[in-house]
Amino acid sequence: MINQIEEVKAKFLEELQTLKDEKELEEFRVKYLGRRGIIQSLFDKLKEIPREEKPTVGKILNELKELAQEKFNEKKKEIEAKKEKVKISLDLTIPGRFKYTGRKHPLTQTLEEIKKIFVSMGFEVASGPEIEDDYHNFEALNIPPEHPARDMQDTFFIKENIILRTHTSPVQIRVMKSKQPPVRIIAPGRVYRNEAISARSYCLFHQVEGLYVDEGVSFAELKGTLLAFAKQMFGSSVKLRFRPSFFPFTEPSAEVDVSCFICGGKGCKVCKYGGWLEILGCGMVDPNVFKFVGYDSERYTGYAFGMGVERIAMLKYGIDDIRLFYENDFRFLEQF
Amino acid sequence: MKVSHKWLKNYIDLEAEPEEVKEKLTMLGLEVESVEYLGEKYKNFYVGEVLEVMKHPNADKLTVCKVNVGKDTLQIICGAPNVAVGQKVPVALVGAVIPRNQHDPEGKPFVLTRAKIRGVESYGMICSEYELALGDDKEGIMVLEPDAIVGQPLAEYFGLDDVVYDVSITPNRPDCLSHIGIARELAVAFGLKLKKPEVKLAESSKKVFEFASVEIIDTVNCPRYAARVVLNVKVEPSPKWLQNYLKSVGLRPINNIVDITNFVLYEVGHPLHAFDYDKLAGHKIVVKCAEEGEVFITLDGKARTLRRDTLMICDAEKPVAIAGVMGGLNSEITERTRNVLIESAYFNPISIRRTSKYLGLSTDASYRFERGADPNAVIWAVNRAAQLMAEIAGGEVLEGVIDVYPIKIEPKIINLRFSRLNSIIGIEIPKGEVIKILEGLELEILKLDENGLTVKVPTFRPDLEREIDLIEEVARVYGYDKIPDKMSSIVHFSTDKIKTDFHELIRERLIGAGFKEVVTNSMLDEDRARIFGDNFVKVLNPLSREMSALRTSLIPSALDVVRHNFGYGIKNLKFFEIGKVFRVSFDEDEKPKFVDNYIEEERLLILMTGLAEPISYDVKERNFDIYDLKGEVEKLFRAVFLENYQFIYYSNNSEISEFELGVEIGGKYAGRLMKVSEALLKKFDLEADVYIAEIDFDLIRENSKIEERHYSEIPKFPSVYRDLAFVIDESVSVGDVEKAIRESAGDVLKSIRLFDIYRGEKIGEGKKSVAFSLEILSPEKTLTDEEVNSLIQKVVKYVEQKLDAKLRSY
Ligand SMILES: [Zn+2]
């Protein structure tokens, strides 16, 4: 019996050291000091031992009980004290640990949006060079030398017949020369214009070109496709206005205005109180272009369109100076 | 082009309001950029007559006038010395905005109110030229013509009761560079009739052929030349109505003869030129090209050097005009001119354009000729001008027109199939509508059946040559807004395998790592381009020297971004750019993808400068260093499953770097990581530690295994970790130790990580301790302690021997 008591005592002290919180403390108390706990069960066993041993064993047992209670109380205090200390030092108002935040350039964001919409309609992405030859940039697009339409785009020259492309339309030619219809592509990229730099124009900007050639492609379908694009890009309530215009490589040609999504078409500063914002140019591919790339213009028809990424980003975010895109001021980039 | 609303009304019964006209023109493809109401600023101004002038009872210099303004007679106080009874004067009524305040140093406008001046009421104001913003005279009131009508709105009196549209005319529509041309479009759109003025000429009995002759030598560049001679004109200022028309479209009236040619130009679109007949030697016109290098003085007094392909109008002895561009000073109309030869010709558009470009001289005439004038309008135009010269300048028009027209330019005949029209547009347009539109545009229908029609195109429409051109005309006038929005019922799917958008992937990774994306100019200063090699591409006609070359590296523009931000106190920068670089290459083995000899490559640039982490409460402040950059680059490679890369450690640096290391991807040089040299930073006025990596983007993409990701069984057994530290000589690199460990440990070494570098007394001078954590794993079994220990012993022995290293601790 005495051995048994010593064993319990040793176990008790050992286990007591491992206690960490109030929950464990309570479980421990029930286990040893509870009414049906281990120590009480020892008292119960007292009845069974010989009478002459009872006083000695009883005394030892009582000492154990006292010691256990005392040690337990000490431990309880210790745990409670620790808890108090934690409460004081924890300050959740301290700011979290920050790292630098990355941002995607607003032009890239706008371009990716445009791209995703057209890719979801089945357009594939194509590309071409920024240093272009006269043939692809002008001639094959039905802009012969000495044509007044060349005045529409001020050109940077690299040398005779080599230029910095003035639009992404030469990609149309490159793609059509490389494959037969159906062709359904968009070509995003950088283009250059030899124009004085101001808040409204920069010497370079980004365009997204679109081209769809197949049997039975019509102007009505061009209208439908661009309307679907505009709704996804600017909101489902926008309207489009197609105005007749002139591009040498499309006929009929149109300039497209979107109803001002800032004022809803009522007129505001951004739309210059007209209710419309010009966003892109488009038209049916001119048969002369098909001649250049070797397509049968009796069998195939197609449409093409081109839009300025800067223009759309400026409208979308209310940016009033195109130069901001190329300055890369961190306070600007942080806003997108 | 400026178009006057009032002028248009001569040719159509236009009743629409200007805003409606603007809308119509715009929807016809003639975009109206602005509408100017000329009379707007003279609202509340009228012609008045001074009935009575009395001295002001309380002021010496003022008078009290009674002025009849039509509806009313007003009492007006006037301070001008020249006011007198009977004068017709401009009167501003209460509420008028006086354009310029005579008493304000800046001449700001003000609103006129009823005033009491020294006790006497004034109900208006008699204005000076200055106040009306019509001139600089402040001394007295403006006195109008005696025949001015009392009560007439002043805008009307000045011919300013007009609305002017600024119409942007696309290069394919030379026919719309005139009021009749615009009126024709409006007539079709509004369903009105176009009334072209009838020309009635009273010719004298003298025959023109006896007075002048014309010879065309260059018939290619001048297919037609017509002339008339008008004798005994009186050169003087034009009548007011003519002056007003010219002013409304932005022209300066010169004299009646010149004004008439300009009027006809803006009326019908055909450029004319008036010569002083008596200054034409031999009274002869010869059309031929100039001598190379010949000098000719144009009307504007400038000397122009001509070329062999410059088409000239000459007389019997000398050139008198640059054909279709500008006349010469030597045959100019002056006040002394008595007799006039009117030129009405048709020149080859290409020839005129070439000359105009070469001379840098664009005129109203050249602008129209190079876009295509109407060869068959020459007679109407020359007659119209002659008629006006007779009427306005009192000239005697000689009988007949000299008309040299060697090769006739015939109207084109075009077929239009209704089926083709409908398939291009996408809906069926009623045939009746098609016919109405084409006839409205003055196309003559020669043949019509159920399948289509054949039209004769007037020569004022050089843009109409093919069926598609007619389709556009029909669609345009029919109205794009009436064409429905269709979405093809067949869904088109791409049949190519969908690929990861690699650009987007790289961007997302870097943005996640805290980098901002920049987009910079690809043009830069030649000198800056040269720092990165001589094979840069030059721009022949740059905007400025700062943009005279194309970049061969993304580094210069990145340093510009640094400088810009430093300028605003933003010193901690972490950014990247994906952009193209350009170079010239004549290397036979290097085949450019698109244009011969020009190579375009995409690069990725990563830049870091400033604090490695934002200031925080428990972060030790530390600047970025090369290891931050190297870590980001490797992290990115790992993110895109790029494995076959290696760094190359150079012992020497370059002009632009303080130190650098190269990157090879797939065995090819792909770029470098560097600390930018002070010398380069100085060129950008920068003082900072700047770290840049510039890597070929295509090599990253081509070598990425992202499209080939494949599951391989994950290890069945746990890894064992052991730490090893070696004391080595300073000259031995961490890479050497790592390499030796890898060599000796073999395949079971799964990974190795440097976790400490120590230098100090305990180790000794010229030495360092490097500590690694080794992950050991066998795919076949759990390694026993003995097996691991024996491996480690092998490694230690090898490293100690190879690098003269000493094991420091286990
Ligand atoms: Zn608006």
UniProtKB/TrEMBL annotation, chain A:
GO terms for biological process: phenylalanyl-tRNA aminoacylation. Pfam families: Phe_tRNA-synt_N, tRNA-synt_2d. Mg(2+) binds at E251. InterPro entries: aa-tRNA-synth_II, aa-tRNA-synth_II/BPL/LPL, Phe-tRNA-synth_IIc_asu, Phe-tRNA_ligase_II_N, Phe_tRNA_ligase_alpha1_bac, Phenylalanyl-tRNA_Synthase, tRNA-bd_arm. GO terms for molecular function: ATP binding; magnesium ion binding; phenylalanine-tRNA ligase activity; tRNA binding. Its EC number is 6.1.1.20. Its main location: cytoplasm. Binds 2 magnesium ions per tetramer. It is found in: Cytoplasm. Its cofactor is Mg(2+). GO terms for cellular component: cytoplasm. Residues 114-315 form the Aminoacyl-transfer RNA synthetases class-II family profile domain. It catalyses: tRNA(Phe) + L-phenylalanine + ATP = L-phenylalanyl-tRNA(Phe) + AMP + diphosphate + H(+). It comes from the Bacteria. Keywords: Aminoacyl-tRNA synthetase, ATP-binding, Coiled coil, Cytoplasm, Ligase, Magnesium, Metal-binding, Nucleotide-binding, Protein biosynthesis. Residues 61-89 form a coiled coil. Gene3D superfamilies: Bira Bifunctional Protein, Domain 2 (3.30.930.10). It is an enzyme of class 6 (ligase). Tetramer of two alpha and two beta subunits. Belongs to the class-II aminoacyl-tRNA synthetase family. Phe-tRNA synthetase alpha subunit type 1 subfamily. This is Phenylalanine--tRNA ligase alpha subunit.
Automatic annotation (TrEMBL), chain B:
The keyword Thylakoid does not apply. One of its GO terms (molecular function) is ATP binding. It is found in: Cytoplasm. Its main location: cytoplasm. The keyword Nucleotide-binding applies. Its EC number is 6.1.1.20. Its cofactor is Mg(2+). Residues 39-155 form the TRNA-binding domain. HAMAP family: Phe_tRNA_synth_beta1. Belongs to the phenylalanyl-tRNA synthetase beta subunit family. Type 1 subfamily. This is Phenylalanine--tRNA ligase beta subunit.
